[in-house]
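Worked example 2:
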Amino acid sequence: MPAPTRTPRHQWIEAGLHALAGGGPDAVRVEPLAKTLGVTRGGFYWHFEDRGALLAEMLDTWERRSTDEVIERVETEGGDARAKARRAGALTFSGSLLPVDLAVRDWSRRDPAVAERLRRVDNRRMDYLRSMFRTFCRDEQEVEVRSMVAFSVAIGTHLLAADHGGRDRAEVLDLTARWLLA
């Protein structure tokens, strides 16, 4: 008799990230995830000791994707510092990473360990952005200000509901990027 097929670990993590993005950490529950995957919850315990272990691996996956994988892709695709900064922002806040990023930011307001993880991720992102700005800005204060403004705009644009005086958001973001990268 063949061995039973188990739902791969990465599918549990993906389902967990999807649930996190849609409903926050409280939406990441074993039974609903099993139902989403079309399996029994017993398979979960083959891969994870408990829900906390899944949450930790979800955060590891989010961190790796939003830092290591973004930086690796930006560096592989090359270009000057301005092109790299734009690409890093576009990848970091892409449709696949943004919902999880926003959910982690919200979660971090209630969980100090998640807040520390977010701090580490944001510091890594800011360090990379600073390295891009340093290639054409000699003043460290200017590097820090541009990095802070760029990162704040990248996050804030997803939280801001304001109109832009007849311009659409994409146009304003492009103008902002051109101004910051000048």
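The CA atoms of residues 10 and 89 lie 26 Å apart. The chain has a mean pLDDT of 93.
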